[in-house]
Amino acid sequence: MNKPLRHVMAVLLACFTILFIQLNRIQVFGAEALIENSANTRTIQRNFDRDRGLISTIDGVVVAESLDTPGEVFSQQRSYPHGSLYAHSVGYLSFNFGAEGVERTYNAPLTGTTPTQELTDLTNILTGTDQVGNVVLSIDHRMQERARAELGERSGSVVALDPSTGAIRAFWSFPSFDPNRLAVNDGSVANEAWTELLEAEGNPLRAAMYRDRYFPGSTFKVITAASGLENGLITAEQPVFEESDGYVAPLTDRPLTNFAGATCGGNLTELLVESCNTGFGELAAEILGPERLTDTAQNFGFNVSPPFDLADPVVSEFPSDYGSLINNDVPAGVYENTPLLAQAGIGQFDVQASPLEMALVAAAVANGGQLPTPHVVERVENSVTLQTIDDVNPGSWQRAMSGDTAQTLAELMVQAVERGTGRAAIVPGVVVGGKTGTAQLGTDPPQSHAWFIAFAGRPGEAADLAIAVLVEANENAGNQTGGGVAAPIARAMIEQYYQSFGE
Amino acid sequence: MKARTLELGLLVLATLVTAVGFVTVGLSETADSPDVTFDLQGEVGGFLAVVVALLLAAHVVIRLFAPLADGMLFPCAALLNGLGYVMISRLDQGLADSQSAWTFIGIGAFCTVLLVVGSPRKLEQYRYTLAIVGVGLLLLPLVPGLGVEINGARIWLRVGPFSIQPGEFAKVVLAAFLAGYLVDKREVLTLTETRFAGLHLPAIRHFGPLLAAWGIALMVMIAQRDLGSSLLFFTLFVVMFYVATNRAAYVLIGMTMFSIGAVVAWRTFSHVQRRVDIWLNPFEDPKGAGFQIVEAAFALADGGVTGTGLSQGTPKKIPYAATDMVFAAFGEELGLLGATGLLVTFMFFVASGFRVATNARSPFEKLLAAGLTSLLGFQAFIIIGGILRVLPLTGVTLPFVSYGGSSLIANYVILALLVRISHNSMVQAVEEAEELKRTAGSLTVSSRTQAGWTAV
């Protein structure tokens, strides 16, 4: 009977070999497809059950933490003690809707799963996910609260950042939403909240300050001025533009007018201080031309996706195509769409910028011409030892203009605050430079976006803060001006900065 | 190396592996929830003491009552049992507590069988009693008031707080019956009396009792919706018939019968159809019908080559992770390496079992050892193959690893019988060798004198 015995054994061993082969097919060769299968909820769930670090502001206020939820689907739930205040920066972690904000982009350090964390913390491997990462934001809680208070119930955005490092100090858009509603473990409750938020007025889910674009209006004149200075075509003093209440560009007979039908003119200093549309229209259309203005706009970060530690920032746009050259009646040459270029030069036509981008424009002026790389996270700490394991310091982004140009522009912007359209932003004892913007959207009923971009610093010292404030157009607010509506918010933010960060 | 020394060494190894697993699970439990007060030293000390005491007791019993038995079988079982316990404790502490009680009883049963059954050959004469007992055990759950239906299969007896699966014991008893019957009829079964379709077949009357017992058993299992056991029992039958007669024709007939039976079952029973559909297209309904098999596949994929680490995965997502699907839980947390380790352990067990069968002296013991080894080996193949989609998934336990009292005890009984047969055949072999030596001894002496004489 030993021969058939050997056969049976051979068959059984062959069976086990088949199992081994199949095991390899599933665990090694087929694993990736299985992990990515749409029915597979393991990756998300693992993320959920994993320990997750705290998120706090630079002044030590906890803005996101994990609460134990014994007996529920997941062992813990993310909680946001300040509700809507950080919804667009910290974001949320939701089983149904994934992650947003810092919760999304810093998921790996928060869960202790970056390669560095796993390597340096060998005990993790043996004992589990004890030590994770705490994220410290560069945002200051008091400035963030101040931004919310100043903007109130008006749709708009406030972005304040350190012009040399790009560290964001305040990052607020209204309307916002309560991320706790999406983070709950009960999926049906979260679904309900989501549907409601999607239909809510003003789209509160949208992080307007870095994911939405608006006409920058006159704040864009800073870039038009930079282009003239940078190309050596003008100086702060020369040439002197004609006093006018309407600039008529070549190829059109529709005049470009000034705000409230005013008459203005003079050299670049006067144009910027008074925010003179006619002068800037002429500068863009007749002296700069499409190519130079587009180049400068791109140097300032237009038409490029900005480097940012939050996902999917919107690309600010400056239209570059103005048709072909028709004649050389003006120094810059006349193109088919030169009239539109005149409009683009004052931040109208199809120019679109996010509040974040405009804050970076102010930062470049205050930072010697260099655009900083913006970031909302200051550092990542080990949750147990509290030692810094990642010092977020992304450095500069790109050069917007030369140091000399930046110096000249800074002086002009300081004058615009001291004696021009930005007087509402004056803060005693602080050097403030700024540029107003009033982007008119319509006349029936009249409404406009009110902008103010600014920088502030101690006399004789490097600037401490760059700001962009946008109060969105609203039928009921009429023609709200940047100087009247947005500049006071910027002033409040500057005052708050010196209260928060000391003398 | 002597068998007992090998056994002791392997037992130490199995204990170490189990203990490391236990410590890992304990450590991560404390890491996960600070509320759990886990006295590591105390717990591990207590656990180790119990494991060592149990294994040592069984080892001593083997040393005393079956000292010449194979040294691989028991350590393999101990390792599988130990790893199974660690995984169960990681999945469900309540089940783990029961499993430790079952392990106690299982090793008790092992020692008892080893002590009581001195010569398994004696079982041969009770073969018809065995047939009746086996079928009776199978039928018990169908008795109203006694049996209960759990998860769609009516294979359980409710006795006080315990659920017993008499079918687990019926398999062992029926294997003994088959061995007895086939040894008795072996010669007539190999005789050619009729020809059918070119095959030489013995007279149909010799099959009578066999087909009756087998047919009833199979029908009962199908009626109870215990497809895994039906498949296993069928395989056992074919294997033992083939080993007894050495006729490939029987395998062929068996396969044909199986195919016909499978088609009929597929057409008749909707639950059989469902199983086959799920096997072929598990991803058609991943949240419904295919849930179990799909979750197992996701678990295995998560594990990859090295696994997530014990207590670091999410095997609780797999339905029946502690019982039928335990292999998937191992694949997830210990990866391809750990799962292969289990496969290799089973292969060692199966190879050792067949070595016992090969060395067995009496035909009955040989057949019984082959049957019992096949039972265990094919059971492991059927459930792992089901999880890995080599076969349709049918619910049987993974021997020694899965949670389940009846299954664990029955497997320890199988182990005891194999150890007993192994020892007995070695004893006989030694006796025969001594016999040979005695006769050869005189020869040697004479040849040596002859040689000496030549030298002189």
Provide the fold topology.
The complex is a heterodimer of chains A (503) and B (456).
Chain A: H1 2-29, H2 31-36, H3 42-49, E1 55-56, E2 62-68, E3 76-79, E4 93-94, E5 98-99, H4 101-105, H5 107-110, H6 115-120, H7 123-127, E6 133-137, H8 141-151, E7 156-161, E8 168-174, H9 180-183, H10 187-199, H11 208-211, H12 221-230, E9 241-244, E10 246-247, E11 256-257, E12 264-266, H13 268-274, H14 277-299, E13 325-327, E14 334-335, H15 338-344, H16 355-366, E15 370-372, E16 377-382, E17 388-391, E18 396-399, H17 403-419, E19 431-443, E20 446-457, E21 463-471, H18 482-500
Parallel strand pairs in A: 1-6
Antiparallel strand pairs in A: 1-2, 2-3, 4-5, 6-16, 7-8, 7-21, 9-12, 10-11, 13-14, 15-18, 16-17, 19-20, 20-21
Helix pairs in contact in A: 8-18, 12-14, 12-17, 13-17, 14-15
Chain B: H1 3-32, H2 40-65, H3 73-91, H4 93-116, H5 127-139, E1 147-150, E2 153-159, E3 162-164, H6 166-190, E4 194-196, E5 199-201, H7 208-223, H8 227-245, H9 248-268, H10 270-280, H11 291-303, H12 326-359, H13 363-387, H14 405-455
Antiparallel strand pairs in B: 1-2, 2-3, 4-5
Helix pairs in contact in B: 1-2, 1-3, 2-4, 3-4, 3-12, 3-14, 4-14, 5-6, 5-7, 6-8, 6-13, 6-14, 7-8, 8-9, 8-13, 9-10, 11-12, 12-13, 12-14, 13-14
Question: Care to give the gist of this entry?
Answer:
With about 500 residues, chain A is of the alpha+beta class. Chain A contains 18 helices and 21 strands.
